[in-house]
Amino acid sequence: MKLLSPAPVFSHVYDKTALSVNVNKVALLRNSRHLDIPSVCRAAELCLEAGAQGITVHPRPDERHIRPDDVFELAALMKDWPDREFNIEGNPFQNLMGFVHDLAARGLPLHQCTFVPDSEDQFTSDHGWNFPEDAGRLAPLIEQAHDRRVRVSLFMDPVPEAMAAAKAVGADRVEFYTETYARAWATSEKAEVLARFTRAAQAAAAAGLGINAGHDLNSDNLAEFVREVPGVLEVSIGHAFVADALELGYAATTRRYLHCITQAFAPA
To answer: In sequence order, what are the residues at sequence separation of 6 or more whose Cβ sits closer than 8 angstroms to the Cβ of residue 44?
Structure first.
């Protein structure tokens, strides 16, 4: 049996949870006209200047927001920010692996790809991978990413029993799908839902996985999630971030979300 390629080694180590800004909704607004505004690259640059540790995109096959040119232009921009990370999300059975291969061929940076089990016409991500059903299909694609020194994170529901299987298939990290937490945040169910994420994070850490999180996190619920769920290395935030940026601007919004993370690490 062929052994999986060794996991990539990265030098980007942050003292707190990293903030990766998803700029998809900037592209969605731009695509509503033919004027090339607002600029996706300028949005990313302003967020990076304000302290964001990464940029995330999810280029869907229908190009309804991020387009292929955006991916390559953002990757070129990231060359000027060697201490930050570029993360591409998507379904590896659709267009994601093409970007992984093409970026490597062009010598452009890609630090992480997040495998998401979306259908081509799906409105937004709404569930994680299933194990053992998806294991056989995912393993060779994870290996391809590792061959190009790209970290792989699997989009997962907070199911503790699935964490060891995610590690066994070769994943480096899992990204917890956090919409259930966001829906429960202002309700009496919040404590129970948070406990579910905590148990899943503990299982992920025990399996040797890094932990990311994303989907409907915002400036109200972010600090509590990072404080209560152990070991979150990165949060990827797009919709709420861009909504806030329409009122506050990119730089101020970046600082607000970074402050939320700082609050999570402050002594009680």
So the answer is: 21, 23, 55, 74, 77
